[in-house]
Amino acid sequence: MAKEDKKNAWKEFFWNPRTREFCGRTASSWGLILLFYLAFYIFLAGLFALTMYVMLQTLDDHRPTYQDRLSTPGMMIRPKGEQLEIAYTVEYTETWERYVQALNNFLSPYNDTVQAQKNYECKPDQYFIQEDSGSLKNFPKRSCQFKRSILEECSGITDRLYGYSDGKPCIIIKLNRVIGQLPAKDGQPPYVTCGAKKYKVGKDEWTDDTDKLGELLYFPPNGTFNLMYYPYYGKKAQVNYSQPLVAIKFLNITKNEDVNVECKVNANNIPQGNERDKFAGRISFKLRINSID
């Protein structure tokens, strides 16, 4: 009897024919509850949509409304190799042809004909500022030409192998883009310098590879990032923007030895690495040029 009563109780809970209740509620009661939750969730969805609409009105399609102030832009090299290590044997083409191909791919947008077609011939040694006219947006903004021929011996034009075949390789350096940054003060443009990187060899002993590094050549001269390529207005505003580059050619680096190199950007309003990021504004990499001669 107990089992039968329990079974009947469950049946009556799901549907009571005497009170016409389903799961303890009448149809009108269920209707009111569903109506309440429908109105409640419509209100929440509307509130969320309104909030998103108001927030989107504060955004600019071409420039971040809020931007972390990057006082020191990052740097990168091309070709970058594995773990920023470039190693090859001069006599074996297969060991360095991938570096040459990487440079060809990287520099193809900088071909002189492409730059002349897409970009503007700017006046050098001064910022190329393109302000908006009140509410009238000056978009798309023009970009200055950076022709690969500027890199001379490291352009891949006069030497299509970028010096890799004779043990005098070229490394190309670029600065990360920072919207609105004017990386100079009093007309002094930023420039790149490279040297031997210090590394630890003992508990309190440091050394470097200055004696192995040899002579360096910079292209453009003095490793300068010309002011006309700044400020950068963003990917959408400057669709054809070409980052300025600096190339370093290693003329007589010691063969069959690891050489630790560090390059950094120098400017009178760009601080060097800080406690949060000691490598800001600089990059370290390793070169090893082997030769069987």
From TrEMBL:
InterPro entries the record matches: Na/K_ATPase_sub_beta, Na/K_ATPase_sub_beta_sf
Gene Ontology cellular component annotations, sorted alphabetically: sodium:potassium-exchanging ATPase complex
The function of this protein is: This is the non-catalytic component of the active enzyme, which catalyzes the hydrolysis of ATP coupled with the exchange of Na(+) and K(+) ions across the plasma membrane.
Recorded hits in PANTHER family, A to Z, give: SODIUM/POTASSIUM-DEPENDENT ATPASE BETA SUBUNIT (PTHR11523), SODIUM_POTASSIUM-TRANSPORTING ATPASE SUBUNIT BETA-2 (PTHR11523:SF26)
**Family per record:** Belongs to the X(+)/potassium ATPases subunit beta family.
Extract the GO molecular function terms from the UniProt entry: ATPase activator activity
**Pfam families recorded:** Na_K-ATPase (PF00287)
For this UniProt entry, which segments traverse the membrane? Answer: 30-56
Q: Which organism is this protein's natural source?
A: Cyprinus carpio carpio
Protein name from the UniProt record: Sodium/potassium-transporting ATPase subunit beta
What topology does it adopt in the membrane? Answer: Single-pass type II membrane protein
Q: Where does the UniProt annotation locate this protein?
A: Cell membrane; Membrane
Its GO biological process terms?
intracellular potassium ion homeostasis; intracellular sodium ion homeostasis; potassium ion import across plasma membrane; sodium ion export across plasma membrane
Query: Taking the first listed entry, what is the main subcellular location of this protein, grouped into a coarse class?
Result: membrane
**Which keywords does this Swiss-Prot/TrEMBL entry list?**
Cell membrane, Disulfide bond, Glycoprotein, Ion transport, Membrane, Potassium, Potassium transport, Signal-anchor, Sodium, Sodium transport, Sodium/potassium transport, Transmembrane, Transmembrane helix, Transport
Q: Where is the signal peptide?
A: none
